[in-house]
Amino acid sequence: MKHILKAFLPTVLGLFLFTSVASAHVTVVPKTSTTGAWETYTVKVPVEKEVATTKVTIKAPAGIEIKSYQPVPGWKYSDEKDEKGIVKSFTFEATGEGILPGQFQSFTFVGKNPDNAGKAAWDAFQYYKDGSVVEWTGDEGSDSPHSITDIVAGAAEADHHDVKTEEPKKEEVKAADDKEDSDSNSLPLILSIVSVVLSLGALVVAARKK
User: Which in 89, 154, 179, 185 has the greatest CB count within 10 A?
Assistant: First the structure.
């Protein structure tokens, strides 16, 4: 039994640790969008500490105009604009207990993409109840990377025009949010399957050693 526990526990703990690290980043989806489009973006904010997250601020990437947001119960929205009335940054702040350890919260908003292709970097600042702040502003591969959206040229001018002039409906906003939730659940499921397979292998090896 001791041999089984020695083989089983490190495997399970390692997988849980990997799952936590892999899902700890503040991310913005979709990862790819088209030039000039009215895009429905969703930012997912997980909690990586043992205290609640009470506020998150997102800097609007250059060229993306933030137009509207989806209200979230228990949170209030505010933004900072430049002299032209363009949103420079926006903030969701908890009116209650915030996002607790082991939880995440999604915030959905609509932005108008720039007319030129490029990479949009979403710098995010995550505020915790203990006063600490995690700045998700680093390059890809760093300890605290910002999320990137690739803005690519639209396929056709006619379709491009239709996308620019019509804001998404509420059903589309909900569908985007549901897709994000579905995607976020796939990694833990895969890791759970891998954990079961490795655990069974460990049990077989331990039994043979007896």
Answer: 154
